[in-house]
Amino acid sequence: MDFLLLGLTDIPNIKVLLFVALLLMYVLTLMGNVAIIWIVQLDKNLNTPMYLFLENLSFLDICYTSTTMPKMLEMLIVDHRAISFLACAFQLFFFVAFVGTECVLLGIMSYDRFLAICHPLRYSTYMSKIVCIALAGISWFCGFINSVIHTAFTFRLHFCRSNRISYYFCDIPPLLVLSCDDTSVNETLLLTIGVFIGWTPFLCIIVSYIYIIVTILKIKSTQGRQKSFSTCISHLAVVLLYYGSAIFSYVRPVSTYSMDKDKLISVLYSIVTPMLNPVIYTLKNQDVKKAIRRQMSLKQK
Questions:
Q1: Domain limits of the chain?
Q2: What is the reported pTM?
């Protein structure tokens, strides 16, 4: 059986504008995140836990935008909406895996900033290279285990109401709406696992930043406070945008779903945030800007 993705809109003129806008955003996302991976790999001064996590974040953004954007662009330009049952399952699996991984990774990145600012003398001990790699691995493990569970329980359902998905990619909420089976188990899984994958890292981030802000305010040097704030504010901005939209999309009952509104909300964490991440981290981060200048000067020589 094939599913039909209804996409973002059916209005021809808007579809053309959306195609141009989304294609531009996708290209900027790829270029920005590839640039961060490239600069972290080349510059030895960025060989620290913070930038290893940032490199993972950039790779995640490339992965999950590439899971949905090509099909979305195809629907807008050639109006090919059909997606096979297997392709739909794969799309959902990888998208949920990457989103879950990013939720955990953002929480780990806040813990890294907490150690760096609140316990600078012990930072190298607590956040060794082995610990850093292990934490990054844990985020990927959690994301994929989360996806295996959701994908298995979603595609055990019978979709007999319709094959028309009122969404622009295969996601859990719109598929649950199509099922004629009892989806209470799926809803319970979304809520319970969402607590661990979504709410727990988010609350850890909030607690970490409370301690970070208190510590920064105790710094006597104005320059020191500004440097610490500039390092953390970029991460906090990404967190608020990403978690706010992602938690709203998943951690709530199916009865409250509104596909038209949810499509707009999902655009924030699946398209806008991956594009903004490189901009936020480079514009607000002096170390990255210095590294880019160093690499550019080396290229010129």
A1: 2-300
A2: 0.88
